Amino acid sequence: MITLKNISKYTLDDFSLNIKKGEILSLLGSSGSGKTTLLRIIAGFEIPDSGEVYINDKLVVSDDFFEKPEKRKIGLVFQDYALFPHLNIFDNVAFGLFNLPKKEQKSRAKEMIELVGLNTLEYRYPHEISGGQQQRVALARALAIKPEIILLDEPFSNLDEELKNSLRIDMKKILKEIGITAILVTHDKYDSLSIADRLALLNEGRLEQIATPEDIYEKPLTKYTANFFGKTNIYRASIKESKLITEIGIFEFKNDDSFDDFYVSIKPQHIQIVPYSNISAKIESIVYFGDHIEIISKELKTDKEIFIKSYFDKNFSIGDTINLQIDAENISFIN
Fold first, then answer.
1. What domains can be seen in the chain, in order of their start residue?
2. Computed over its alpha carbons, how large is the radius of gyration of the chain?
3. What is the pLDDT of residue 315?
4. pTM
């Protein structure tokens, strides 16, 4: 659906990416990673210094060609929603339909308002509805023009966490129901994990990793990816004689090959506290989060830090010695 070839602009350097028809792709990354620049290049608001952009196999940007934004059949949902305060919900949604007959404008606007669940509020004004409802209006307006692609720029950033959770579910349902290709730009990992079919994680203008939410979270390929989705445990490792040898312990490993000097990632929730094991650690700190506790401990033999999330055992104190179990299948190999 969308192909970016060798794009260079600001932090982006020779960046390439393919986006499939009908998928929800999230461009995820910290400030300055290049995600918003990519969105603006696709929309036609920025011209790359070099590179090409194709939409439906049609060239829209190259070194000597530029197709105007209004010809790209792209809908936009901005971070601040950009609703017209003097227009009610119906008129906001119908705003881009001026080229249609009046009857068709009304029918299309009503259809989109109903799709986003606001059919009882169509004659209210933006200041009379909540932030979550305003976001739905912005989505309805973007979809009303029947775009082939919709671009969502930090759509949940102005909402509280409880409202975000319900709107993420609704947003994905609406986009999938229509079957539109969508690109979500965000710095919030939970937006990406809950909505996207694939995540493209950017790091200083380059593509760090692209994968499904499950794979990018459970099988990170680099240290940056592993740590982006929450603090993890990273250790040097090697494989010898069917043993995975790490800085905190040795694990059975079904592989006859030998490898030296690489890294592994072990997520804190994959470390279990058990009565007996070969890995023991002393608790350095405990933080209580209601449904779980987070423990920073030091392995007794090596003094290596081990970060643990425990959802069941909470009766611990600083200075206690705990025994830890780690299943080899939960250990990820990273670069």
1. 2-228 (3.40.50.300), 233-334 (2.40.50.140)
2. 24
3. 82
4. 0.86
